[in-house]
User: Fold these one by one.
Assistant:
Number 1:
Amino acid sequence: MRAPSNQAKTYVGARLCLAVGLLTLPIAARPENSKPPQDPPAAPASGPQVELRGVEDTMQASQEQRRKLEAEIETMRADRARLNAALIETTGNVQATETKIVEVEKRLDTLTGSEDAIRRSLESRRDVIAEVLAALQRMGRKPPPAVLVRPNDMLEAVRTSMLLGAVVPELRAETEALATDLGELVRLRQAIIADRTMLQANLGTLAAERQRLAALVEARQGSLASAEKALDVERQRAADLARQAASLKELIARMESESSPAARAAEEARKAEAAQRHAAEAESDDVKARIAAAPFKDPARLAPQIAFVDTKGLLPLPAAGTLLKAFGDPDAFGGSERGLSLATRPSAIVSSPTDGWVVFAGPYRTYGELLIINAGGGYYVVLAGMDRINVDVGQFVLVGEPVAAMGDGTAKTAAAIAIGSAGPILYVEFRKDGAAIDPGPWWAKADMEKVRG
């Protein structure tokens, strides 16, 4: 008869040695500072010359890409429909990429948090692991006696067997738990590296799409700004009215009565509404069904195809981000929210959520950069908190067309201060006949699910 110690010691000792070895990895090797493994670079033939050649090649490739882009846009400049289609498509690509980036960043936050929790758990068990290893080493130096060889040590063998019988199962359970945690730590590291690689790829795609979008916006506004001096006068007029207006309702009313472009926009909205009523009376049910099924399909349209009230459940959110406040939620002043607030990435692109005419574009009180779109039928869409607006008063914009860009969150708006957010906040409000209404029924369901996470 032998004391049951050798196999158990070997199993426990081997697994604990593996655990301690992995636990003692330097903290500096944590994955948030790591990058995907790359092939070692080849030895340079002549350092500065090779670097200079690489810079020249990069500049040449960038210039070539820019020339191709300019040539492509020049062919679109005279074709409004093609230009609008390219603007909407590129804006959609940018916002889809921004959505992917937001999702990856959220996943990385979760993975990093899980990794930190496992590391803290393993760190807290260092003393226990050291004590167990020390005990195993002592047992290795003085193993329990073999009864057949030393029959006089029967009592010591029995005591050792009883001790091992009590301790080894506990050690085995501890090492199993350690092995599981270490396996999960390795999996998390691999997932973090994969997500960081994906994030870098998405950021590269985003940069290229933004370059294209900037060129398209420049082409669109260039074709509209034939009378730049008149535009400057109207911008100054809008700024003066914004300083005088005490509320959004008053601002809209004064712009449409005292600003020529805004007045023309309001008149166009009324004409479009009347045309929609006449068309609804004259058109067949088949035509009405086709228009209702694809109200935003024609990029050359100069007025909304259907009434704003009929676009419920169809409108896209104006930016990719996370919903922080919805209509009716408690605000920071004891009341309730009159719109919704989206946390966006810095420099996120803001698109028009509706067809309509711009009646105000510029800074207004604590709203930051404010954009008001007349959607017809007495409905207005208010967008606030942007850093830069790239449309002008009187301009007709399409659903999905880029109208503004967010900042980096350093310029605090009323919405950002009320929420206490450190990043940029886009505020969206729908108004009907001067009063704020719930925009919820108008948003496409898929978009709302994305921003709710």
Note: The chain has eleven helices and eleven strands.
Number 2:
Amino acid sequence: MLKKWLTTAAGAIIYGAALGLLLAPNGIAPGGVGGISVILSDLFPIGVGTFTVLLNLPLMIISLVKWGWRFLLSTAAAIVISGISADLLGMLPPLSSQPILAAVFGGAAVGAGCSVVFKSGSTTGGTDIISRLLKLKYPYLSFGTLILMLDGAVALLSGIVYRDAENAMYSAIALFISTRVMDAILYGSDSAKMILVISRRSREITYELLYKENVGCTILKGVSGYSGTDTGVLLCAMKKQSLPSVRERILACDRRAFILVTSASQIFGEGFKTGDDDFY
């Protein structure tokens, strides 16, 4: 529990630092509630962190009804910590006065902070909560994609409010980078390879992979479409760094083996992760 709360706090501080030190001083709205808060803080004499907290209140009620008190408390903590961090750090000189640098590094920091909070089982509020609701209905869409769709309108709004097309472009850059960083952190570590091996020496290859490469295999029964003869088909999933040595062992057993390699963004099961770990 302590690790969960410390992780939530760390991610919220990173998120708040991105707003207070990079994005808000340069008038860049990263999307979502944070982006709307940046716009409102320019229009009214209230800190971006304070606006972030106020705008999240209605969404907190939804999260309470949907996921209960534990989720509400952790999300509320992330919102308050990120809001306070943004306001306090916003009192310091900005890390950069160059909009392009602020958009790139601010967007990356937002994506990293949100990802850390997500991994702790919480959210930073705003469109993160809406994205999690949509994720239940559209599980095939990544969090980054959902947030990109929702927050793109905020980037457009920032251009209208500031009457500056360049501002909207900087906001779009920050949003795009944040969602790409988010997907890389949340899903990139699960990137793996799946291979299909068609060979008459499937038993020998299976032994080599199981006991010398520690790679699990499933033997499927196949029939050659050309000759009509029986052939073995191996289905294997592995970490991508294991692929070169696995390929060498397969070819050492059968130089004529047919190997089909494809990427697997997520793998559940022994040696990888379980379904209970897939918050996102």
Note: The chain has ten helices and four strands.
Number 3:
Amino acid sequence: MTGKLDGRVALVSGSGRGIGREIALKLAADGARIVVNDLDADPANETAEAIRTMGGEAVVCAGSVTEGGFADRFVQAAVDNFGSIDIIVNNAGYTWDTVVQKMTDDQWHAIIDVHLTAPFQILRAAQPVMSAAAKGEAAEGREVFRKVVNISSIAGTGGNAGQINYAAAKAGIIGLTKTMAKEWGRYKINVNAVAFGPIRTRLTEAPADGVGKITVEGKEIRVGVNPELLSQMEQTIPLGRVGTPEEAAGAVYLFCIPESNYITGQHLICGGGFVL
């Protein structure tokens, strides 16, 4: 396999399912070697196997991004198997919605931890590896760009009723992105964010007779958008429909290829023109 990302090493959190899986497949199709992560080992292994089937390279680092020591383990998986880190996509997450007066502290912290604290910890753990590589390249007179893409949401750019925890975390990701772009520019690391609008995944789709459910670390969480509400929303999207995981992955890909080497500290909304 050859491509714009040939030989690059990418960490993609939450890549066993949905958007994360499509990001991993998209990067691998262009030559990147992938460290696949998911809360559950089975979907992570399925993504890794799909990458190998297409002729790519992948290893699995299963587990929750919020568990103690995960960030170090994730980074070490890249170093041990591929020797470097070139791309980090902080994608893992889920929603746990309710209005502010009904939201518990556990509910607040769970969403802040997975969407904001975990990306911070992964970037902190990766810093020694990425900075050492950059310093070595600079000493040789070479300019090599690396990429970080943090996943935000239009809930973080415009707010969304019933999602105070998620909106706060995703707004925080934009601040984290802009700060890391300033700190890591000297290492030639581009740090950008993609804020997704309505994308059709298991977190937005619900059965016709009600709201869906997912299980996260023993907690059963209601997810999904009522089909009638989703249909009404589509009528307000300028492009006329909800996006696909493949299209979401395409937006992330733009920030991973060499054409984005002089873009950093930015956030791109991938939402078909829909804004909150």
Note: The mean pLDDT is 94.
